[in-house]
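Progress report, Aim 2. The chain analyzed during this reporting quarter is listed below.
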Amino acid sequence: MEVTWKEFAEADSKLAEIGAGLLFQFGVGLAFLATIRKDGSPRLHPFCPVMSGERLYGLIQAESPKKSDLIQDGRYAMQAFPPPREESEEFYLSGVARLIEDPAIRQMVLADAKHIAHESEVLFEFLIDRAMHTTWENWGTPDIKPVHTIWRASKP
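Predicted structure tokens for the chain:
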């Protein structure tokens, strides 16, 4: 089961706030997007997510391999860019992306995009089945270890 960003935020507002802070820490959304190629192998892309109407979207150029990957197999993983500081933290999402063709939603997302977006780009909504925030204990020592906060959409 996958949920919208709004539903994720209603289920775990603290984790969603941390996640949005990391995804949009530079003003424009910045993340790495992993998709699945036709042959089943992974592909990794830099990506500019867009938050619009309390939902998570992406505008993708029509010729981009990630567009073809998402149409063929909508599964994705998204990792926010790391913060520019020594004691980093991480935010990760996974789920399914779905193609959005509604002109009103497209216009809303284009208006909310913080990067240079173009009308010709293809719109996807990123539904979430898992979110994870990672911090680090004992940073800078041999005893460093990750501390994960994990959220999963409940199964029907």
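Strands lie at 31-36, 42-47, 49-52, 55-60, 75-80, 90-100, 122-137, 145-152. Helices lie at 5-11, 13-23, 65-72, 103-112. These observations will guide the mutagenesis work planned for the next reporting period.
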